Amino acid sequence: MAHDEVLQDGLEIQRKPAEAPYMLLEAHREKVRRGKVLTLVPVGYVRTEDDGIEITPDRQVQEAVRGIFQKFRELGSIRQVLLWLSTPVEYSPVFAG
Q: Which of 40-68 are b and which e, b meaning 16 or more Cβ less than 10 Å from the residue's Cβ?
């Protein structure tokens, strides 16, 4: 049987080896269309029971995520935000008493 022949009864399907990546991509796209692709939720967000995504209930994490988005609006690019995040911060000592 040639590589590109397909039997009608579904018992045997042979494809050219070069078609395999294309078939995998199409299968993935179909799963996405059906909503069956499991993806990781970004840091600071949680998956809801109905498979939605919402911000985490942790207030400290919420503030950090909102701060990053605010800094992006202020600076205008992700690169600038990353540079801002990587800048060392000097803290002044605080003495109780």
A: eeeebeeeeeeeeeeeeeeeeeeeebeee
User: How many DSSP H helices and E strands does the chain contain?
Assistant: 3, 2
What does the pLDDT look like over 33-67, one tens digit per residue? 877 776 788 888 888 888 788 889 999 999 998 99
Q: Is residue 97 a part of any domain in this protein?
A: no
Answer with the residue of higher pLDDT: 3 or 76: 76
pTM over 0.90: no
> Are the C-beta atoms of 62 and 44 separated by less than 8 Å?
yes
Tell me if 3 is assigned to some domain.
yes
Note whether residue 53 is domain-resident: yes
Cβ–Cβ < 8 Å for 56, 44: yes
Token pair listed for 41? 């939720």
Cα distance between residue 86 and residue 83, in whole Å: 5
Domain that holds residue 28: 1-38
